[in-house]
């Protein structure tokens, strides 16, 4: 369980009000966040040991964001009170049944004197989510500002803020100069950094993708259709919202606070097959699910799709934190389209998990054979020497008859627990994943800059430009090899030759920019010095 999802409502209203006032005292710059410096000063009033406070901060900031919102601050205060009562603080406290309602206020020496000095009547009041009603986070304005002024380091109050600043100042100039958004991925927006972790479900029709989401939520969600035929004919994003409703794709794609603006590049044909399903749910406060249309077999299905199906999957794969490939025991064949879908996940292998669903439909001996056949099929498609993690189970709400298959029941329960653990671990790792994706993007932007500038360099200055461009496009594989040798780059980091060839046909290579070493050096400095420094500044302040 995440610290921010602990039952804060069990804290009495009277205590909540006091904690809000204390939060306002600790939050010296009034931005709705208690950072390491603020926290260490305020927590020192508890007179607990450094080791105890280190553990308390680690539990409260379980997502490793580098700051505490109001929810996390209240958790920290309750843990301080628990420690002052003589209890040991461990991560197991989140799983134990501690009676939070009856935990008294912690003893914070000198807090009353500080409260008397500060007058909060003129300031914005923080809500339970730690936001300030009178204040938009400063980082949201960085992406809309026309000014080229640098963002002051003091404006950065979290790891994600730091990544936003580095993106705008260091990485975006390189991306814009060498058309990274046309060749690889659209430019990032504020909502891309602030989005909740996403889990995408892929599989052939009727493998139980929609039922799987229903099973996790323990309820229906708007727009869920289930049946033996291909029922989900669109991409459905299931996310948290104030009420139950479905929002059409064109509307979601233009909402600045949602990270789906980049999908407009796939056109209206795709957006008409895209929708967002919103509902209030504690799990959706932590994770967003992406349900996809069943992958069908046959060449006809590929040619009759009115949008770039694998392109959309690839776009979501880059944004997602986990990709679940669902199979059922009677549909183990991997069709041509499914092969293309799996191959477009290249570069995201660490996110892939395989789920052998509906396993209750076969007995134990058959299940063993099915598992072997599945691994054999996957071995031909997933080009990796490592064995992919496969979860076996029946992820639906039907009860399995234990008398019929006691071994299956025990196995399914253990596998389901492992998968749920994997899913619930996602929010805790979301910040680390964001850094990982940012570094991957920076490397891809550098390689794109080298490729584009190399092609420009190979163009003649006067005559025969059209022929030279065609020759470069035809021999693109060789040009990639030249770039690789010149800059000593790993071959596995290079993008798809076919994709670049397709994009280059729409451009005049002569109009591309020459290599600007200063822009590349800025990204190298960012990767070598500034990101490590950022992580050091926002780690646990007691380390």
Automatic annotation (TrEMBL):
CDD domains: EH (cd00052), EHD (cd09913). The keyword Calcium applies. Gene3D superfamilies: 1.10.268.20, EF-hand, P-loop containing nucleotide triphosphate hydrolases. It is found in: Cell membrane; Endosome membrane. InterPro entries: DUF5600, Dynamin_N, EF-hand-dom_pair, EF_hand_dom, EH_dom, EHD_N, G_DYNAMIN_dom, P-loop_NTPase. Residues 48-83 form the EF-hand domain. It is a peripheral membrane protein. Keywords: Calcium, Cell membrane, Endosome, Membrane, Metal-binding, Nucleotide-binding. This is EH domain-containing protein 2-like. Residues 15-88 form the EH domain.
């Amino acid at each position: 369980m995440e610290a921010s999802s602990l039952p804060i409502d069990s804290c009495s209203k009277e205590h909540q009000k006091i904690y809000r006032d204390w939060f306002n005292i600790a939050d010296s710059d009034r931005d709705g966040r208690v950072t390491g410096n603020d926290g260490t000063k305020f927590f020192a009033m508890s007179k607990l040991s450094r080791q105890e406070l280190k553990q308390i901060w680690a539990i409260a900031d379980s997502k490793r964001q580098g700051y505490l919102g109001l929810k996390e601050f209240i958790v920290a205060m309750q843990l301080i009170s628990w420690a002052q009562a003589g209890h040991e603080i461990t991560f197991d406290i989140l799983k134990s049944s501690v009676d939070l309602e009856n935990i008294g206020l912690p003893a914070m020496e000198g807090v009353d004197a500080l409260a008397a000095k500060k007058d909060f009547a003129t300031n914005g009041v923080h809500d339970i989510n730690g936001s300030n009603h009178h204040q938009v986070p400063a980082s949201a304005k960085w992406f809309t500002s026309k000014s080229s002024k640098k963002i002051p380091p003091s404006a950065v109050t979290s790891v994600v803020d730091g990544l936003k600043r580095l993106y705008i100042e260091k990485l975006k100039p390189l991306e814009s100069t060498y058309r990274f958004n046309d060749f690889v991925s659209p430019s990032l927006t504020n909502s891309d950094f602030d989005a909740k972790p996403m889990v995408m479900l892929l599989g052939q029709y009727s493998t139980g993708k929609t039922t799987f989401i229903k099973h996790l939520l323990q309820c229906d969600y708007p727009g869920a259709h289930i049946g033996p035929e291909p029922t989900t004919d669109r991409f459905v994003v299931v996310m948290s919202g104030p009420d139950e409703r479905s929002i059409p794709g064109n509307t979601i794609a233009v909402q600045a606070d949602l990270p789906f603006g980049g999908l407009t590049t796939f056109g209206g044909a795709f957006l008409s097959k895209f929708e967002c399903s919103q509902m209030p749910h504690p799990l959706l406060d932590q994770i967003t699910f992406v349900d996809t249309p069943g992958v069908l077999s046959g060449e006809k299905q590929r040619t009759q799709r009115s949008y770039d199906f694998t392109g959309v999957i690839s776009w979501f794969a880059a944004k997602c934190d986990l990709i679940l490939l669902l199979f059922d025991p009677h549909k183990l064949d991997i069709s041509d389209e499914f092969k293309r879908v799996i191959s477009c996940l290249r570069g995201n292998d660490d996110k892939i998990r395989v789920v052998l669903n509906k396993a209750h439909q076969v007995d134990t001996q058959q299940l063993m054979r099915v598992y072997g056949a599945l691994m054999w099929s996957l071995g031909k498609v997933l080009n990796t020497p490592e064995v992919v993690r496969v979860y076996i189970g029946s992820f639906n709400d039907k009860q399995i008859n234990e008398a019929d298959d006691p071994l299956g029941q025990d196995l399914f329960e253990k596998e389901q627990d492992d998968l749920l653990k994997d899913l619930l671990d996602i929010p805790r790792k979301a910040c680390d994943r964001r850094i990982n994706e940012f570094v991957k993007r920076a490397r891809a932007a550098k390689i794109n800059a080298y490729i584009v500038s190399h092609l420009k360099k190979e163009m003649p200055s006067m005559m025969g430009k059209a022929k030279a461009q065609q020759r470069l496009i035809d021999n693109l594989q060789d040009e990639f090899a030249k770039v690789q040798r010149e800059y000593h780059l790993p071959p596995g980091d290079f993008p798809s030759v076919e994709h670049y060839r397709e994009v280059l046909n729409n451009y005049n290579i002569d109009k591309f920019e020459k290599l600007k070493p200063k822009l590349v050096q800025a990204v190298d400095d960012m990767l070598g010095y500034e990101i490590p420094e950022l992580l050091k500044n926002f780690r646990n302040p007691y380390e």
